[in-house]
Amino acid sequence: MNDIPFEYAGFWPRLGATLVDTVLLFLFTMPVMFLVYGELNWESDDFILGGWDVILNWICPLLATVAFWIYRSATPGKIVFGLEVLDVKTGGKLTVSTSIIRYFSYYLSAIPLCLGFIWICFNSKRQGWHDLIAGTIVTKKSQIKEAHKIISQE
């Protein structure tokens, strides 16, 4: 894998992809949350409003993100920015277990002042803590296709 000329995605394209994903998730969940909880959705100080809140804001994002990583190697935001999430050892698609580990490792990257995400700026492969924990990389998609062509010609 180390001989493959991947171009790693840096902090800013990854942040842009995250913002796209956040807006899409917001556009999906907020109308449904408002239908279920009404004004309580905006006025409540409760961390969790109820079962629908858990399903819409915790379970659905987990399932959607893992499914996108497994089947498309990217979330919608990463697709927009031409990025892919790959296994660092094989350069291939993520497994279910790797995807779940990466997803929950986001929290470890975020909790201490988002230092795990800022780490992307300093790591040689542009890996955040969540990538290091799960064994993943984020690359520019065009480079991946060229790398696969190189491998298949050898």
TrEMBL record:
<protein>
    <submittedName>
        <fullName>RDD family protein</fullName>
    </submittedName>
</protein>
<feature type="domain" description="RDD">
    <location>
        <begin position="8"/>
        <end position="135"/>
    </location>
</feature>
<feature type="transmembrane region" description="Helical">
    <location>
        <begin position="15"/>
        <end position="37"/>
    </location>
</feature>
<dbReference type="InterPro" id="IPR051791">
    <property type="entry name" value="Pra-immunoreactive"/>
</dbReference>
<keyword id="KW-1003">Cell membrane</keyword>
<dbReference type="Pfam" id="PF06271">
    <property type="entry name" value="RDD"/>
</dbReference>
<keyword id="KW-0812">Transmembrane</keyword>
<dbReference type="InterPro" id="IPR010432">
    <property type="entry name" value="RDD"/>
</dbReference>
<feature type="transmembrane region" description="Helical">
    <location>
        <begin position="104"/>
        <end position="122"/>
    </location>
</feature>
<keyword id="KW-1133">Transmembrane helix</keyword>
<feature type="transmembrane region" description="Helical">
    <location>
        <begin position="49"/>
        <end position="71"/>
    </location>
</feature>
<dbReference type="GO" id="GO:0005886">
    <property type="term" value="C:plasma membrane"/>
</dbReference>
<keyword id="KW-0472">Membrane</keyword>
